[in-house]
């Protein structure tokens, strides 16, 4: 069973996908989303969440190294948050149940007419790196996207050098669908390939059935 034990959060555990399933989601399109796993709550961010902690992640160049060219500052996100309408765009915070800490976030962009979504994740609180937080919470998010929103495909794009993100996609059964050569420019001006990872609904359900 996946659990965060004692004071030490630096505890790697295999994902227990059964426990990662959303415990509660009576969501309707356009309403704030809340998903719960054994150790975390994922919920739509509000203006109140866009504070110092959020800004500190935006200011952390190492954290943002592979996270795109967008301005993730509180100032900009306060303007953009209303666009995350909980219908085809979600900005979800990840909150640790045990500590109450806001530890990171997801972006989810849904194309409803085509039945697909693109996701990205950031764990801003380094205490939670290597704890399985992404695997636990993204499993719940995948359940939500495939089973509640009824999508066919979830995908993501990650820098080839971003080893933890690549490992996480593979751990969830995402397939490498292509490589975008030199598609990303790092802050120092060097270019890097991006890998497109995709997961189809039936592939996710097969994993669930296997209890992976
Ligand atoms: C990407 C991110 C969310 C991953 O966090 P995490 O899940 O805690 O990552 P972990 O440290 O557990 O690493 C994931 C896996 O990669 C492996 N890994 C990490 N670095 C590695 C390396 N240099 N060599 C080999 N394996 C490595 C880990 O061992 C782990 O594998 P395991 O699950 O089999 O043990 C986090 O690094 C982050 O927020 N980065 C900044 C934002 C970002 O880049 N987001 C992704 C873009 S969408």
Description:
The chain has 7 helices and 8 strands; from the N terminus they run H-E-E-H-H-H-E-E-E-H-E-H-E-E-H. The chain has 212 residues and is an alpha+beta fold. The protein has a domain at 17-151: Gcn5-related N-acetyltransferase (GNAT) (Aminopeptidase, 3-Layer(aba) Sandwich). It has an 8-stranded mixed sheet with strand order 1-2-3-4-5-6-8-7. It is globular, with a radius of gyration of 16 Å. The model is unreliable at 1-23 (pLDDT under 50). The structure holds coenzyme A (COA).
Attribute tags:
Aminopeptidase; disordered N terminus; 7 helices; 212 residues
CATH superfamily name of the domain at 17-151?
A: Gcn5-related N-acetyltransferase (GNAT)
CATH architecture classification name of the domain at 17-151: 3-Layer(aba) Sandwich
| Helix content, binned percent | 25-40%
Structural class: alpha+beta
Distance between the termini: 12 Å
Tertiary shape:
globular
Mean pLDDT, to the nearest integer, reads 90
Largest sheet: 8 strands, mixed
What small ligands are held by the chains?
coenzyme A
CATH class of the domain at 17-151: Alpha Beta
Q: What portion of the residues fall into strands of 2 or more residues?
A: 25-35%
**Model regions low in confidence, pLDDT < 50 over at least 5 residues:** 1-23
The count of helical stretches stands at 7
Q: The CATH topology of the domain at 17-151, please?
A: Aminopeptidase
Write the H/E string, N to C: HEEHHHEEEHEHEEH
| Biggest sheet, spatial arrangement of strands | 1-2-3-4-5-6-8-7
Radius of gyration: 16 Å
> How many E-type strands?
8
């Amino acid at each position: 069973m996946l659990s965060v034990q004692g004071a030490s959060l630096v505890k790697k555990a295999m994902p227990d996908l059964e426990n990662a399933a959303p415990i509660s989601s009576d969501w309707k399109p356009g309403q704030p989303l809340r998903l719960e796993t054994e150790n975390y709550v994922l919920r739509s961010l509000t203006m109140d969440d866009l504070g110092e902690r959020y800004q500190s992640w935006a200011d952390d160049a190492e954290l943002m190294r592979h996270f795109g060219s967008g301005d993730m500052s509180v100032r900009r996100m306060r303007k953009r948050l209303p666009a995350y309408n909980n219908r085809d765009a979600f900005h979800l915070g990840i909150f640790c149940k045990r500590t109450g800490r806001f530890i990171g976030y997801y972006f989810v962009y849904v194309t409803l007419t085509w039945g697909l979504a693109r996701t990205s994740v950031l764990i801003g609180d380094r205490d939670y790196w290597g704890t399985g937080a992404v695997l636990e919470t993204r499993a719940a998010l995948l359940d939500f996207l495939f089973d509640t929103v009824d999508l066919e495909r979830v995908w993501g794009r990650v820098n080839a050098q971003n080893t933890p993100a690549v490992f996480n996609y593979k751990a969830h059964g995402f397939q490498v669908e292509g490589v975008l050569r030199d598609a990303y420019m790092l802050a120092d001006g060097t270019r890097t390939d991006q890998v497109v990872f995709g997961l189809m609904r039936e592939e996710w359900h097969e994993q669930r059935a296997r209890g992976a």
